[in-house]
Specification:
Blueprint lengths: L1 H14 L14 H17 L5 H23 L6 H24 L6 E3 L2 E3 L4 H19 L11 H24 L4 H9 L3 H20 L6 H26 L2 H29 L15
Antiparallel strand pairs: 1-2
Length: 290
Amino acid sequence: MGEEEAKQEEKEEKAKPKEEFKLSFDYFNESRLGIFALTIGVLMAIFPGLPAFIKGVGIMIVFAWGADSVRKTARYGLGTGVPSIGVLAMGFGIIGGITGIAVASLSFGTLVVGGVEIAFGVLAGVVLLALLGFVSGNLANGDKFINMKIPGLERGMMELGMAGTLAVLIETSIVAGTYDITRVLPSVIDNGVIAVIFIISAFGMLQPLNTCLGADERRGRTLLMSIEIGGIAGIILGIVTTLTLSAFEGVPLIVLGAVVWVVFYRAYMKACMEEAYAVKGTGLIKTLGG
């Protein structure tokens, strides 16, 4: 009887289908999403000459990673903790972004290979904020310091530092087209666009959990909103890029942002209505459907 059971278990094990790749948040768990977003974010950041709409896709992926990290670190408490950690992520991002741009602007910070600009120097900001985030998480959780005792806070803060930095770097390169400080200053900093970058990036990372937080919060539904906000960011950055660079760069990004916004807004609202116990119509979203 024991041999028969063993054979049956072996047959069942062989019959199990292998895990297949699916473009969903179920496949991209926290670790996979982090690795994927970090890889895409770094590639988008070190090649500032890429078309703006391609970098717009990178922004949406980085937003989803940041929102996932906020979800991971802020779901243990309610109230102001969620927006606070999103703003902290972008505070990290501004420091890391400016550091990376400063290093990339130096003679050894950027290589030009075959006419292609490769800004390796920006990675200095990413690495610096990874370390700063990890140290901050340790101080916040440490028994001799704040002693918050939040599981995984060290990793979450490190990820937020990197995600915030990559968001600032990619958005800066979208608007300025380069990390040359002589072009970044008038195109991004002197005119106040850096404040817009801060606000839309913070919202992209904090607002998803801030909206969905509660007993029925579900990761997939929450992250839909981060990509939706990424679409709004694409529209805003596309308008700014049209003014700072050209319509050739800005208009495709506006179109991409609008399409992503509509598609993911509908997907988010449908998920909310399907998963809610009951839905009371207000008349504001009559045409969405079931």
